[in-house]
Amino acid sequence: MNNSNGQSTLQLLGPLLIILILIFGLAFFMPRISTGKTIAVAAGIVLFMVSFASSQIALYILIFSMLLGPEIIVGATVGGSAGRGVTLRLDDFILVIIGFSWLARMAIYKELGFFLRTPLNRPIAFYILACLVSTLMGALIGRVNLKTGFFFVLKYFEYMVVYFMVVNHLHDKKQIRYFLWALLFTCVAVSFFGIAQIPGEGRVSAPFEGGVGEPNTFGGYLIFMMAITIGLLLTTNSFRAQLIYGVISLIAFIPFLFTQSRGSYLAFFPMLFAFVWLSEKRKLLIVFLLFLGILLPLTAPQKVRDRIAYTVTQKPRSDQVQIGDIRLDTSTSARLISWKAVLQDFVKHPLLGFGITGYSFVDAQFPRVLVEVGIIGMISFVVLIWSVYKQGNMVFRQARDTLHRGLSMGFLAGFIGLLVHAIGANTFIIVRIMEPFWFVLGMVAMIPELEAEPAVEGYSS
What we know:
Elements: H1 2-29, H2 35-53, H3 55-68, E1 71-74, E2 86-89, H4 90-108, H5 121-141, H6 146-169, H7 173-197, H8 215-235, H9 239-258, H10 262-278, H11 282-299, H12 302-313, E3 322-323, E4 326-327, H13 330-345, H14 365-398, H15 402-421, H16 431-452
Antiparallel strand pairs: 1-2, 3-4
């Protein structure tokens, strides 16, 4: 009884102590910082308190900030990032604040536990460890600036915090439905933002991308979200739901075309073919794909056709790669040249690589992993990727609820699309792609446990 009272007192005093520390901290810094920074700090404290009080509200805030948060370039990196700044967005700060509030909540309410045990915990831990050790070794030898490497490693893994937050918080089937609709609402919102850019001359990108947009990032995000909606479309038995998912897919497809991202175009058809393999409606899908394959070349906007043709029609330049009689454009050539350089330089530090930011910028996921964290890091990365696929496939094969089947099937197809997208982009370290990816993966990972519980009255798919 005394232990129970002591625990209750601790749980009451803990939040009060945190609030007092935050208030005194704000009072201390207010006279020393500008009004704008004071407002930002105060907003952060409010967000911390809200997140501490309700993890569910925190997760909704995170969902809406994933693609709707502005970016800020902070400083200039030193070393291997080609002089690029450390890109920080609103959702980076939100995720850090929410993450700390979640950890504080777990520490005080110990019965909640810290990290729920899932099949992905060990692969995630091994990959994080490989990156940390590689970067620390690079810093000791002088290849990596420690501060720059630390911030990049932190950004690499901040989205994995999302995964652990989701798996620790999900305890009801309805939560999956509500979180899913929040994700789809965000997708529709940014898709309309992209559609509004089409009349302009430039390429379409997500909102709040700073002075220079990132169409390839937006294309990867839309690939993943279209896969989710198509998976739901193929499994639902409700005509109304089919209509809604179909409209969302079409809305997302329009700005996707105008991203003019050839890496995203390359990923689009493998994503669709994955549904032929996974879905029971494969005959219908084959007919649809044949129809789409015939129709798109004839009806695609001229911008899209010009962008694809540009790969082999750019005017001859000295920095182009030539394969036979075909000259590749400078962008594609630069990637191929960087891959060749990676294979030549990788042997200098084969086991642990150059460290995160210890090598010049490489705009392709797999060569970058190899040169930055070496064979050990590459093996741990491949094990993580395989574990993600294995978990998603297991859930899809065993799920009974149609919503869960659609979500897990869409996740698998989107995952396959992102693997192809990663050939020409650092897909698995881009926060705006990885935050929704790991959020959905967290939901998928929890489906077996949720389906093992008694059905919630009134819940239907």
